[in-house]
Amino acid sequence: MATAPAARPIAPVSPPARRKLHVVIVDEELPYPLNSGKRIRTMGLLQRLARRHRLTYVCHRNADEEEAFRAVEYFAAVGIRTLVVDRPVPPKSGPRFYARLAANLLSSLPYSVSSHTSQPLIETLHELARTEPIDLWHCEWTPYAQSLRTLPGRRVVMAHNVESVIWQRYYENETNPLKRWYIARQWRKFIRFERDVLQQAECTIAVSQLDADRFREEFGLSRVSVVDNGVDTDYFHPRTTPRDLNEILFLGSLEWRPNLDGVAQLLERVFPRVRQACPQTKLLLVGRNPPGWLRRLSVPGVEVHADVEDVRPFLARAGLLVVPLRIGGGSRLKILEALAMATPVVSTRIGAEGLHLDETHLTSVEEIDELPAAILTTLSDPQRAQQQAHAGRRRVVERYDWESLADRLEQLWLSCATVGGPC
User: Fold this and answer.
1) 133/399 Cα distance (integer angstroms)
2) CATH code: domain of residue 347
3) Is the peptide bond before 91 cis (omega within 30 degrees of 0)?
4) What are the backbone angles phi and psi of residue 102, rounded to the nearest 5°?
5) How far apart are CA 7 and CA 95, in angstroms?
6) How far apart (Å, rounded) are the C-alpha atoms in residues 100 and 343?
7) What integer pLDDT is reported at residue 227 of this predicted model?
8) In whole angstroms, what is the distance from residue 356 CA to residue 228 CA?
9) By residue range, what is the domain housing residue 274?
10) Which tens digits make up the pLDDT trace of 158-191?
11) Taking the CB of residue 179, how many other CB atoms lie within 10 A of it?
């Protein structure tokens, strides 16, 4: 999880003359509060573009009713119209969830696609297409491209990840034979689905050059562009708070499976070895919506902080941020936020992939079992760690500020909304 300003609408400016588009964004739910990487990216870009274009956000209702009400208010404040379908996405727990997983064996679509596809959402989109001029359809998460298949008009897909790569990594790291068999089927379905829907789009927008190269090489896509992840470098900035060199921070949405896998690796393979070498070390797990087993966790030296309002005090105080991912795609906003605050970062290669960072900016290791030594080395040499982190801050300011990234997305919209325009 990562937390951005709770309600800080961008002040209107007088933009240069440009064609004003009506763009319809289709997504899972309203991305508010800004407490996950995907939500922060979405709003970091869109609230800036709402100053320049007419935006309509179409999605399912957020599962939390209070959150749904606050989200509608926030979108109105930043000038984005919302059309919310009163059908929350089915939960990922309970007997009915497992029944849906079993039923998906008979479907050609991945579970993440079939469970997010609803007739009420499709009907809302068709009514919008019938009654209003739409310059561009913008799919904010690849599975929702399924709901756009039969709509007239031009479309782009924001691919926050290469979804099939995530499922490939689930498969490679799963040891349970039955789960591995099921995951293999989902992996193959996602390969077919991504290739099919992305080839139909005017443009696929990747969040990193690495993902863009994968789309070209593995799916044969020619219309691919990159809009990197970013960070509000004014909101996330270095503080004078003394760092606790005995404190390790993990930051991430604790309902996302790759993050939960990373937490499990920390608890089972990493932190015990760090704690053995340095008994006073603490591990803070900070994120939204942790599952019950994590909320009840009682391990010496480990603290769970759920659904915090502001992650910046944790980033300001921690000796380092650890990113223990074995599974994932896209790129990690949590790393950008940490470096924006000059917080040292130790990550696996997969955790840091997709970002234009190197050993000048953070410490990266190939395997989970290399993390304990890298953490202990970083904590034992705070001067070098801070030199890395400050170099990382400079790189983030140069490359990953939301304003310039919003300009890039706007250029793609204008181009893709024009028949024959390049991506």
Assistant:
1) 35
2) 3.40.50.2000
3) no
4) -65, -45
5) 37
6) 42
7) 97
8) 10
9) 244-399
10) 999 999 999 999 999 999 999 999 999 999 999 9
11) 12
